[in-house]
Structure formats: C-alpha cells, structure tokens
Automatic annotation (TrEMBL):
It holds the Pfam family AMP-binding. This is Acyl-activating enzyme 18, peroxisomal. The keyword Membrane applies. InterPro entries: AMP-binding_CS (IPR020845), AMP-dep_synth/lig_dom (IPR000873), ANL_N_sf (IPR042099). Pathway: Phytoalexin biosynthesis; 3,4',5-trihydroxystilbene biosynthesis; 3,4',5-trihydroxystilbene from trans-4-coumarate: step 1/2. It comes from the Eukaryota. The chain crosses the membrane at residues 261-282. Keywords: Membrane, Phenylpropanoid metabolism, Transmembrane, Transmembrane helix. Residues 201-570 form the AMP-dependent synthetase/ligase domain.
Length: 626
C-alpha cells in the first residue's frame, strides 16, 4: 500500500472484523442503513471465512466480496469508503492491496482475451488455461515472438496499407538497435483514421467526435460522424495544398478542440508534418519549437476562453516568430483580434478551396512507413527540448496499445483532458480512430462541474486523468451529484498517483479499475501499465505492456532477477515497436544507448525512471518515483 494509504490505515486503526454500527454512523451513514450494512458486511466476512476452512481470513477476498455485493455506493460519503477499504486491509503486509478483480467471463470478451482464446490454444497447447491464468505467459510470448504477436494484432486494427509490409520485423541491420518494423510498407495513417471499416465496426454514420464548449452545460452535446470528419479533414487538406510544399512542417498551437483534431489529421493526410506545441507555452518556448522544427506556419486561436475571461494566444504566437499564422476564432465565426498582413483567419483559409469542384474530396499522400508525420518535444528543462519525430509507425503502436491494455473498442467514448502539444494528444486521436471508438472533447477547463457534466452527458466509457486533476475533483466536491456509471475504466498518467484519491475516483463508478500508465514521447506509448486481465492495486502497474521487455538495473548496471524486490533504473529492450529511431536536434545513439549495459546480446535503452520493483502474489507491481 502507498504511503498515503498506510497513513490512512493507521488513522482508521481497526480491522474489518472490529467495525461496528456506530463506526458506520460516524462515517456518515444513517442508523437504519448502518444496521443493514453491518449485517451485509458480517455475511460477506462469513462467506469468505467458510471458503477458507478455518485458515486466516484472506483480506483480498473480503474486499472482493464487498465490491461484488456492491455494498458501497457512489452516493455514500467518502469517509465510509475509506473506513471499509482501510479496515479490510488493516495491517496487510502481502504486497499491494488489490481492489479490482477480473472475472473470467468478462476477460474472454476483452480485446486481448478474444485473441488469446483464438490463438493461444494453438500457440501454447495444453498449457493454455484462460485469459486470466495465461496472461503472463502471453505477455512474455509477445516479447519473445513479436512477429507473431504483431501479425495477430495488426489484423484487429483498420490499418490500410497501399503496399503491405515485407515482414513484421527485420533485424538484419545491426546498426539499428530496434530493427526495422513493417519494412517496405506504404500507407497514410490519417487515411486509416478517417475511412470506414467493417472491422472494427466503423461506419460512415458512426459518431467520430462528441464535444461541448464550456458554459454550454445545459445544451446538447455536439456530434460529428465519421463521414463529416472525413469531409472536413479533406477540405483542410486541399487548403493546405494551396499554400505549402509537401513535407513542410506546420505547427498547431491551440486547445485540443474538434477543429484542432481536424487540422492535425489533415496535415498528416496531405503529406505534411505536424509540429506539436502546447497552448500553455510562453512566446519564448513557442519560438524555440518553431525554430527547431523549421515550421513554415502555425495554426492557432485568437484567444483561450475560460469562463468569462479571455487569455491571449495569437499575440504569443506573433511575439514568438514571424511565421504565417492561421487563426481560428475561440468563439463565434470571426476572430476577435487584428491579424498581421501575412496571417489568415480560419474562414479565409477555408475559402481558398471554394473554387474546387469537390473541396471535400482528397486523395491521401501515401508514404513509406518511416516517413515523419509529427514532431513532438521533450520538456526542455535543461536546454532546447529534444525534437522527437513520429512516423506512420508510431500511431500504430498508439492504437494497438490502447486496444490491448485499455481495451478500447467500437462503441466506447473516450475522453482524456490533454493537448496536442503533449504526447497524450496524438495518442488519444489514434487510440480512438484506429479502434472505432468515439473521441470526446471538452472545450474548456476540466477542473469544474461543467467538465464532469459533459462526461455524464456524452456517455463517456473511458476517462483519462492525471492524479492532480483527481485530487482537485475530490477536494472541491465539484463532481457531486453526477452519474458517471457508464464509465467502465479510468486511465491515469503523468504523475505518481495517490491511493486515497484513486479510492475516491474508483468508488464513483462502483469500483471500476484505474489503469496506471507510464511511457514516453519517444516510445509513442506506455511500456508499463495495468490491464483488464490482472487484478489491480491503487497507484501501481501490474505488467509490462504487450511486446515490451525491460530489466531493472542496479547501481553498477547489472539487472536484478525478475523475482527480486529491488530499487533501480529501468532498461528497456530495444526491439520496441513504435519507438523513435532518431532525434532531429540531438544524437539519438548518445542520448538513449551509449553507456547502457548489454542484456542477452542486446543493448538496453535508457529510461530515466527510478523504480521500486516488487513481486506480489504472482503479480508484478511496480511503483515509480518521478
């Protein structure tokens, strides 16, 4: 249990068998309900006690029984959830306390479970049991046999190749630590995002994006179908062709709105390169990224609206560099600022294709798999930020990982407050459009009730968070009274999680899982995270992501044994599908490989995370210090 959980457990000071009706009343439950709840708790404990035939009470099974009976409701005070959770796990010292447990029937319906049931009996023979029992074996198999794993997964995603790859992985060029993935293939990944597909069920009338602007809480959620998205993307692609040369880098510095997503996909579809810049950056930070990427233009907004206030954005872009700006109005049809002579309003930009007979039709620019589509940046806290290029391969990893570990699928509505200037922005786009899920966007601050009401009204099923955001929701009570029961899981990244905050979050939706994710821009994904085939504990990771291998290194660069609890640095195996193989303004080899130890005839890639690595109940739970 994390330190915050240990502190809370000590405050509670009781085991579950010592809890009484008066404790439940003090936690905010009416006396009559407390008496009923006490009886149900006693029955749950008795059932677990009978099943263990007189042995020590298994605290994990007690919690499993409490959540299976749904004795705790989202409407109950958080103090009650705390009382029962920390009392159940009072003095628990057998690894991280588990709060969510996969069911066998549901596991077989997950994306990973389906392919395991279809392929593992042949791959593993009699050793295959079921998706839960055999998950660890399948994860190891995906690391040892990436060609087989990825050949299976690629058939599950609507990736359209103009020319199919010669193979999955070519390791003949020893100068490339990670090998060549999908060599010889030609495609445009944005085309795969906007075209219809029978598998997954992604039709022209499917809802591609839902959104709402801050302040419109009582209005209907806006919807855009896949066909409408495709036509908008193609119109912008035609307008881009009128102004720029193929291969030009074009920046996006604006909130992640539906319009920003359209612009992003259009730049890629038309064979240009997106330059990702966060809308929170000051002019100097914007200037550095425009300079390093050699951007020829930037899409931005006239301002950022938060409640009744407007915060300047276009003026920051003007201060940063003299490059051409195409300015989208934050509100209404017209921009609210005076533009420079070389700049264009969004309306004038779109009007440049009015002369075309079919402005909503466009033939995608197909490129080799290793062509650059997006330039993202590291934080840049110690000098110029590293310019990290994504190719058409990177989005495939985004979509595949969300499909596998987060179980994203057609019918899901996925929302994650983020920005195209950070890696989660592009990941979110590809995670939705390469799985058939609907992308949900809130045009405003995620800190208030308005965002929560959008999550409710949009029917969000997968909600991404950062821990500081959850802490704010919990401390302010701004989400009180909302119905989030359509959410089937949360995902969390960016910071170390707090156990009690995640307890609050999970309790809002009948203890659905909070899937922890840890990765990097260079990887285009997470290398370690939770999943729906293993029990989960708050604030921990349960497995390396699919096809990912790593070791924990001691101070001398030696790997610890897999089953030994340890503190060390993560060394990733280099054959990582989707990882970048270059930097635009730094020596990739020097940054990631030089000085790293060899492991099983391959050099590890450095990952600047210190890890506390522990084994619990045949589960690998890893907590990172940031």
């Amino acid at each position: 249990m994390g330190e915050s959980g240990k502190d809370r457990e000590r405050e509670m000071g009781k085991s579950i068998s010592e809890v009484r009706v008066e404790d439940l009343v003090r936690a905010g439950v009416a006396e009559e309900e407390a008496k009923w709840l006490m009886g149900e708790l006693s029955a749950a404990i008795a059932k677990v006690a009978v099943n263990i035939n007189g042995g020590l009470l298994d605290q994990r099974e007690v919690w499993r029984e409490i959540t299976a009976r749904k004795l705790l409701k989202p409407s109950h005070p958080h103090a009650l959830h705390q009382l029962l959770y920390y009392s159940v796990y009072h003095n628990f010292d057998h690894g991280p306390p588990l709060y969510w447990f996969p069911s066998l029937n549901e596991s077989r319906c997950t994306n990973l479970g389906r392919i395991m049931e279809a392929h593992c009996p042949k791959l593993f023979g009699a050793s295959y049991k079921d998706p839960i029992s055999s998950f660890k074996e399948f994860q190891r198999f995906s690391v040892q046999h990436p060609e087989i794993y990825w050949s299976i997964v690629l058939k599950e995603l609507p990736i359209h190749f103009l020319e199919t790859p010669k193979c999955i992985l070519d390791t003949s060029d020893k100068s490339k630590h990670g090998g060549n993935w999908l060599p010889g293939s030609v495609l445009n990944i944005a085309e795969s995002c906007v075209r219809s597909s029978n598998y997954p069920n992604k039709q022209d009338d499917s809802v591609a994006i839902v959104w709402r602007a801050e302040g419109n809480d009582d209005k209907e959620v806006n919807c855009m179908t896949l066909k409408q998205l495709r036509e908008q993307v193609m119109m912008v692609a035609n307008a881009l062709d009128n102004m720029f040369s193929k291969g030009d880098a074009i920046a996006i510095d604006m909130p992640m709105t539906a319009t920003a997503v359209i612009i992003y996909l259009a730049i890629v579809l038309a064979g240009f390169v997106v330059v990702s810049i966060a809308d929170s950056f000051a002019a100097q930070e914007i200037a550095v990224r425009l300079r390093v990427s050699n951007a020829k233009a930037v899409f931005t907004q006239d301002s950022i609206v938060r409640g009744d206030r407007r915060f300047p954005l276009y003026s920051r872009v003007v201060e940063a560099a003299p490059v051409k700006a195409i300015v989208v109005p934050a509100i209404g049809e017209d921009v609210q600022v005076q533009l420079r002579n070389q700049d264009l309003s969004w309306n004038d930009f779109l009007a440049s294709v009015n002369h075309l007979p079919r402005p909503n039709s466009y033939f995608p620019v197909h490129q080799s798999i290793d062509s650059v589509t997006n330039i993202l940046f590291s934080s840049g806290t110690t000098g110029d930020p590293k310019a990290i290029p994504w190719t058409h391969l990177s989005p495939i990893r985004c979509g595949a990982e969300s499909w596998a570990n987060l179980d994203v699928r057609a019918g899901d509505v996925s929302c994650w407050p983020t920005n195209l200037g950070w890696v989660m922005g592009p990941i979110l786009i590809y995670s939705c459009f390469l799985t058939g899920a609907t992308l949900a966007l809130y045009h405003g601050s995620p800190l208030d009730h308005g965002f929560g009401k959008f999550v409710q009204d949009a029917g969000v099923t997968i909600l991404g968070t950062v821990p500081s955001l959850v802490k704010t929701w919990k401390s302010t009570g701004c989400m009180k009274g909302l119905d989030w029961t359509r959410i089937r899981m949360f995902a969390s990244t960016g910071e170390a999680s707090n156990v009690d905050d995640d307890l609050w979050l999970s309790s809002r939706v009948d203890y659905k899982p909070v899937i922890e994710c840890c990765g990097g821009t260079e990887l285009s994904s997470s290398y370690i995270m939770g999943n729906l085939l293993q029990p989960q504990a708050f604030g921990t990771f349960s497995s390396a992501s699919m096809s990912t291998g790593f070791v924990i290194l001691d101070e001398d660069g030696r790997p610890y044994p897999d089953d030994q609890a340890c503190v060390g640095e993560v060394g990733l195996f280099p054959t990582y599908m989707g990882a970048t193989d270059r930097l635009l303004n730094a020596d990739h080899e020097k940054v990631y490989f030089r000085g790293m130890p060899m492991h099983k005839d391959m050099v590890c890639s450095i990952c600047r995370r210190k890890a506390l690595f522990s084994i619990g109940f045949s589960l690998q739970h890893v907590a990172f210090s940031y």
